[in-house]
Automatic annotation (TrEMBL):
InterPro entries, per the entry: Peptidase_S1_PA (IPR009003), Peptidase_S1_PA_chymotrypsin (IPR043504), Peptidase_S1A (IPR001314), Ser/Thr_Proteases_Immune/Dev (IPR051487), Trypsin_dom (IPR001254), TRYPSIN_HIS (IPR018114), TRYPSIN_SER (IPR033116)
Coiled-coil zones: none
Ranges for domain Peptidase S1: 36-285
Domain of life assignment: Eukaryota
Cleaved signal peptide residues: 1-18
Keywords of this entry: Disulfide bond, Hydrolase, Protease, Serine protease, Signal
SMART domains membership: Tryp_SPc
Protein name: Peptidase S1 domain-containing protein
Protein family per UniProt: Belongs to the peptidase S1 family. CLIP subfamily.
GO molecular function: serine-type endopeptidase activity
One of the protein's GO biological processes: proteolysis
Pfam families documented for this protein: Trypsin
Amino acid sequence: MLPQIFLLLLTIATRTNQERIITTLKYSTFRVAPKVIHGNPVLKGQVPYLVSIKESSINITRAKKLWVNLCGGSIIKSTQVLTAAHCFEDKNFYYAKNFYLLRVVAGNTRNDLIDSGRTSTSEKAQWRTIVRVAIHERFNFPLNDIALVIVDTPFVFSDTVNYIIPARKLTDYPKTCIAAGFGQTGKGPEMSRELLWADIAVLSRQQCNTWWEMEMNDFICTNSQASDVGGGDSGGPLACYGTLDPNEQKGRDLLVGVVSGKNYDKTTLFTRVSAFDHWTCNLVHLLLKCALIEESNKHPTYIIKHRLLN
């Protein structure tokens, strides 16, 4: 009887903690304020794995539109981008249902771009159309704030476009990692025209738990006093090197976090990538099965397990 009582209390405590996180961040005015404070312009090839998920703003000509940054993301495979689920949440998940309206742009450090939006590859940029979006089935911002985007054509890897390996091990990371993105350069409304990067002070799991007064193993907390990121950089990477993660390769950054949200009296929160390793791997296998079905069947039946939207 005692173990059952303990399990009940643990379940109640877990739900209470989750509700506290949701309540604290869901209605925070800081959640949607895009910024890289005290950031530096990204050098060519510095963060080749970072992409900009763009939405069309205005028509410039009949053939071309102005495309602006909606969220960031990280290339983890030639056709797969890891980002934040809340990037697709607004207006009753409008872009989750109409993802074909968005574009994924790699290899370009400009915020606003004028282009037709057609899939193309050049030295200036690689444009891709989204063909699928998979959102974590238990997403409730900021919980499980992770999504996988599939593009129509593989990225061509080069010095300016490449992939980053996701973390797998639940561990603490070096005290300083890097984040990058577009957005405001401070508290004002002015948007950065260039991709920026910043050193981010990473807190240990114990420090994060103490700060929030609860277990925060699905998150990475950072100290935003020196430099920071925010909602406009949502979905973008927190990258580290010199970790103890078995997935890290020499000479490559490791994707440890996805920009999620922040609260004025707490810390900036990143979704901890290693906490969702099984989700990502299972989803990749599911998508592979879907692709095989598509090739052999003109009218495929999809198994919707991870809120897979296609």
